[in-house]
Predict the structure of Cupin domain-containing protein.
Amino acid sequence: MADKQRENHREDVAGRANVEDTPELLAYYEDLERYKAGALWTVANKIEPWEPKSQSEPVVWRYKDLRQHVLRSVELVTPEKAGRRVIYLNNPGRTDVAAAVGWIYGGLQVMNPGEVASAHRHSASAIRFIMEGAGAYTVVDGHKMTLGANDFVLTPNGTWHEHGVEASGSPCIWQDGLDIPFVNAMEANFYEVHPDLSQAVGYEVDDMTRTWGNPGLKPMVGDGWNKGYSPMFKYEWLPTYDSLQKYAGCTDGSPFDGVLMEYVNPATNGPVMQTLGASMQMLRPGEATKAHRHTGSGLYHVAKGSGHSIINGKRYDWAEHDIFCVPSWAWHEHVNGSDRDDACLFCLSDLPVMRALGLYREQAFGDNGGNQPLL
């Protein structure tokens, strides 16, 4: 019988594990295995790397390629049978957890006019970013929201939620984003189907945006809002784009991200949810940013325009409604491909987790004038 190949991650560096295998040690390791234990020095350099080494790969999911396959799913399965009719984004380095990048799940969901996906709730937090169609809506804990292109909507953890398209509407496609892989890694995921499969609408339509979405104004009702997620379940595209334009008129912006604004919880000025954050950035006509890297993964959606990003020295071209990912601690920079029109990138990230746990770190690219050489 061939000898078992054992892990032993050695580094010839002071302060790092560098223990050479001997027959006596190999026998010792076998003894430890009998007690469901092991010698730390054989794996220490693996589990405590010098810097983050993401398993995720940079990927661009091109909408012009995926759209036809998303629409074809309408002919093949019903929302009732599928639960949610979604084509998920499967990063080659994260297929074991069905993640688009890092610990973030992403997918493209499609619904036809008159269809309704049953109400459910789960421990995972979720967002929707509307791509095309008319008549889409979401109901969250009895609050109904009408949805238009590039609107961004929350379905926070533990809330009853369902989605549908009015009979008078058109086929709708939106991007889903959830922290399912993260919650599963924490071994904390629960899932529950509503006993009636749907929930009653108990408030005026779009009441949460009308209540909490007024710039600089906070409603003075009751005891306020004390939940761990934003009460403003829907963030509309037109006010977002207007805000970016206003801000662009009075700032040079970030050298790494252009004109960047973060979606916030209006009750706390913190992230929209505890585990998922979201932002929208504008790249001015012809703008090319400098490169940087940071802990935390990003799933980008091209809300407007076209251009390319350079991620770890490789160029990735993108156009409207393409989705691409930037893994944690990957060098990245963005370029607007137009010298006349701006480009806007929506980003879903796990930065709230990084910041809350004290794990956020950022570094600028110091060579070559701040831009990566292409590999």
Notes: The first strand starts at residue 60 and ends at 61.
